[in-house]
Sequence to fold (354 residues):
Amino acid sequence: MNQEWSEMNKEMQSLLSKKVTFPEGISRLLALRKLLFEQITQIVMTYPAEAFYQMPFAGAAGYHSKTLAYSIWHIFRIEDIVAHEMIAEDQQILFRQDFLKATQSPIITTGNELSGDEIVEFSRQLNVRELHRYAQEVMQSTDGILQNLNYPDLKRGFGEEMITKLKKTGCVSEAEEAGWLIPYWCGKDVQGLIRMPFSRHWIMHIEAMQRIKNKLCKQARKGVDPIAYCGFSCNHCFLGAWCGSCRTAYNTCSFATISPDGRCPNAVCCQEKGIDGCYECDLLETCEKGFYIPSNDGAEAAKAQALYIRKHGKKAFLQVHDRLHEQYDFAKTQELLGQDHEEGLKILEEVDIS
Ligand code: SF4
Ligand code: SF4
Fold:
């Protein structure tokens, strides 16, 4: 499990279990949920539509065997049911705001009952942006419920009546793969529900989502020119787990993600000019577009690399990178190449690749 999330989760659980630290425990829980939700938002906002119905680990044992869209639906359907039917005892967000229509979901259940192929087909049908809006509404609504809890509420349990009520909603399939959910939830008190659907369950599925998107990026980069339009090497990039290259639909480099149309300005400019990369452009030295914006501390290092490619070619450039990574421990190229493209070029040219 992600070390940071695991530590936060442990501390939060420990704080929640004592009356005197309970309010701090709730604050930590909300902070953890906020942090985790940011991961989901980043994925939804930056990955192409096709990413949400891919199943790169089909048939594997574990949460990563699902799709990105299914994972989001499943986390927040469970939370919606548990938070509203069991704890607040009011109407679920799915029905309160007509999210069923907006998300275009053909089901109201948690999805546990779906087979691999059915998950792919279900995911393909979902409107992912609306799914994200649904997830956000559920999270905010649950956060409100959690903030209103008092320490004695933690011990509140659930009996046969709740089991009957939940069954009547039709929100949990009676199929073998899902039938265990209602007795499982009703066997817990509020504290037990906080431990699973509202925290740990998120962590497990969001970690799985990270594995899925990392794999999709890796698959996208396969066979694609590893030189980015701006002059970076995708083969050596510290964002390799997040980005599937600016030459693919998984173009989630930092400047693509902050651009309104989700496309890196350097990639767009090169494509408009019909050139292979900024290394083929006469304006390179003075360009301030996208990655080369002066406020970016990696701008000069990127230019140094593009200049190297212009002079020595891509093959030599990749060899230089291999050598540098053998000799030094660094993530961002500016750590080695500094803040001046001419100096950076010299540093690259001094690397022995013979
Ligand atoms: S951030 Fe740039 S260099 Fe890194 S993988 Fe993406 S396109 Fe390639
Ligand atoms: S103008 Fe700038 S962004 Fe456009 S191709 Fe030339 S160097 Fe690249």
